[in-house]
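Please go through the protein record below and explain what the tokens say about the fold. Record follows.
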Amino acid sequence: MKREVSGGCGIMMLMFSLFMIIVGIVAVFDMRAEGDGGSGALGLLVFVAILSPFIYWGYVMLYKFLRPGQPVKFTKKMVQYGGAAAVALVIFALWAALTSKQTPKTPAPITEIAQEPNEPKDSVVITQVMEGDPYKELDELIGLESVKEEVHTIANFAKIQQQRKAQGLKVPKMSFHLVFTGSPGTGKTTVARIVARIYKDLGILKSGHTVETDRSGLVAEYVGQTATKTNAVIDSALNGVLFIDEAYALVPENASSDYGQEAISTLLKRMEDDRDKLVVIIAGYPNEMKRFIDSNPGLQSRFTRYINFPDYTDKELFEIFQLYLNKNQYTIDDDAAELLKNNFNYAVAHKDKNFGNARYVRNIFERAVEQQANRLSAKRGIKDEELSVLTREDIENAFKARK
């Protein structure tokens, strides 16, 4: 009976070791594909070393089962097979480590590269504090001169009040909550992130991160769930800025009853309870935001500072396009630039309420890059410089493709 148990245990230990080695090899392939084959290879060798006692005792038990009473021996073939397996594992590990460095990662598509970092794609997006000078980044933004002036005014006021407080002088209370009004694509989200970092620099906020959301991130589908959902988002924004885009959607026009009111009530209470560690910035179209603020006295008392974001001029749209060119290592020839300026001039002159401003420019840039790819793919012997140049034909087709 003991002999059968010994044989069974030996087989199980050997099968377990073989299975675990196969799992390790598969893991190395996966890690190599992600460019981390070196770590995977080293881990596999360590793993096999740990398994070696199981392999040894498994062999011993199986040998005693097959040849009872005989001393355990390692035949010449067993040594050869074991050595070959060990060498194969080492070669595999070296191959995985060396080739993973040469495995190129799939480049981000142009549509992602051209977007601003951390552009919201979900109903709640948390943007951590980036390094750098927020004041410099504010001043380097294209256009938005009135916005820059307003933000600097807020910063200057806070600095002076801190100095007065340090001298024991009275400090008037000021709300740092803001209302951003303007059309889509005018930089409201970007400026909100910069404002959060400025508030941190001034000591108004400890963290300076930004939590970006909209109605879908605050309002639930059923009664009683909205307060919980809104509180969770606010909790994530404490010591930072809560940025609510299209905030007017919380109070739909001509809606007799809506869960958005529950979100507003929760928000107003938390703004009071956490007034020393929460700043709220709400954004949307000017008329809609006025209707939203006027719908609730609590909103009127807490949101008293408005910053209007003007639409970009045609010249500023062209500057934004050039920014996308530089960021993505493209250039544009003179004919294409002239056509682009003319089209931006026409777009601004005939824009409507939903004109996308910088988003419109980004869309044209992405279409132009696609059209360049279509044009070059039909050619043979493409020159290196052609890969970086957008022509008049590319720009013309980009506008046509967008319609």
Observations:
- Residues 101-121 have pLDDT under 50 and may be disordered.
- The two ends are 83 Å apart (CA to CA).
- The beta strands are 124-127, 178-182, 210-213, 240-245, 278-284, 306-309, 331-332, 389-390.
